[in-house]
Amino acid sequence: MQMDNFTFGITMLLCGMGGTLVTLWIMSLIMEALGRLFPYKPEEKKEK
Amino acid sequence: MEDAIIKGLLGLTVGFQHLLIDWRNVIMILVGGVLIWLGIKKDCEPLLLLPIGFGCILVNIPLSEVMMKDGFIRIIYDAGIDTELFPLLIFIGIGAMTDFGPVLARPSTFLLGAAGQFGIFLTLLLALALGFPKLEAISIGIIGACDGPTAIYVTSKFAPQILGAVSVAAYSYMALVPVIQPPIMKLLTTKKERETIMEYKAKPVSKTTKLLFPLVITVIGGLIAPKGLPLLGTIMLGNFMRESGVVERLTKASENEIANVVTLFLGLCIGCTMVGPAFIKAQTLIILALGFLAICLDTVCGVCFGKIMRVVTGGKINPLIGAAGISAFPMAARVVQKEGLKYNKRNYLLMHAMGANAGGQIGSVIAAAIMLAILAGMGVI
Lengths: 48, 381
What we know:
The structure holds two protein chains of two kinds. By secondary structure, chain A is mainly alpha-helical. Chain A has two helices and no strands. Helices cover 81% and strands 0% of the residues of chain A. The longest helix of chain A is centred in the middle third of the chain and has 33 residues, at 5-37. In chain B, 73% of the residues lie in helices and 0% in strands. In chain B, helix 3 (23-41) packs antiparallel against helix 4 (46-60) and helix 20 crosses helix 21 (350-378). At the A-B interface, helix 1 of A face helix 7, helix 8, helix 9, helix 10 and helix 15 of B.
């Protein structure tokens, strides 16, 4: 069935904005977790 | 004999005759000249505007065969734009050039990179309201990603007929970020908010985190939006090579030779889509206006989200950094730093803004990927 422009636009707006925000939020949580799992050690600076 | 000479000489004037027949070609040759002038005199994205302007002149010379079947630019266009290869190669270079350290140090700034993409979807809605077909509206909205390669990738896939207008809008407005953003930032914030000092404590990130970041983002992003994996995968590949530190030659080739050659070809091809009769119409002006609006809306949404974060954190966030949540890297972060200093001489927002800006760079790719996933889910593509 062909979707009308209004339904299409609102779906894109809600799913798009929501999807982008949720995806980046999940990614920020993963980055937070990575930072905690693998914290920076001062020795790394010496190695460089 | 005389007849043959006259005919031969007349053959030399055919180009001029055709030039007089369609005035739109003349206008587009002038437009090409203006783009070149902007690139050289105003230093406005010269790497792109120079080849775009020259391509625009080339294709509008009457009887020019550069974009005909077997024309030299048509061959490049078919190989790199039709196949969506050029934007992806550029992305490897962008990934290789970008340090995601600031956003890894403060992952919360990633969210500002999401808010900075909302203009895409609001503009899409407006374009639909103005009567643009669905896939053209998608391509117009994507100008709001403030990210040339993403805009080219999506537009060449779904609405190649408006590729010229979308690309010119995307790159021109990216260059105009320092002019577009400050008035909006001032309008949406109070003096007290603008003067908020954000302390910066250097927070180093481990090599393991930097290495795992592109891999994890690729897998998670690919699972959420597989249609956008080429965009996300290439930018992350470039960054992975950079952070691995063991393929310096490949990293350097990606950010220099490959990116430079592709930029030249990409610019020429975009310029050659700007054929007078197809480009000079009211629709082009509407696309340019909507593109401008998209970037304004990105800034509005970013600053408003910054205000929300300020409330949530009890006033610790300066909402100006929200304006850096767009993909124009590092230009938007510099604008925030400059504006912050304007209102408080002790306020150094640069590193916070860099986090939001790096988030905006990934955010624009994620937004495009999400868009493609939703379109696929709805059966539109």
